[in-house]
Amino acid sequence: MTPPIDRTAIYDKSLYEAEESGNKFETELIQAITGLPNIRWWHRNIARTGFAINGFINHYPDFIVRTRSGKMIPAEL
Fold first, then answer.
1. Rounded distance, CA 34 to CA 47, Å?
2. How is 11-51 classified by DSSP, letter by letter?
3. Which pLDDT tens digits describe the chain residue by residue (77 residues)?
């Protein structure tokens, strides 16, 4: 995954020391996600340069979350 270039304050359980800034809704979502006990880490995927899910087109999820059980969850807002 691509580390952020523009960075915001550190949030708990972030994959990196800081993440690319987001809007108010995204910030509230991350604060809720970090409060869940089953979350190992999360990452705000950098638009059009980060992790892509391939199909007939590249799809870039807004967030990628990894649970303590090892599941990777791409999340789109």
1. 21
2. -TTBSSSS-----HHHHHHHHHHHT-TTEEEEEEPPTTTS-
3. 555 555 555 678 888 777 777 788 888 888 888 889 999 998 888 766 667 677 667 777 888 899 999 999 887 77
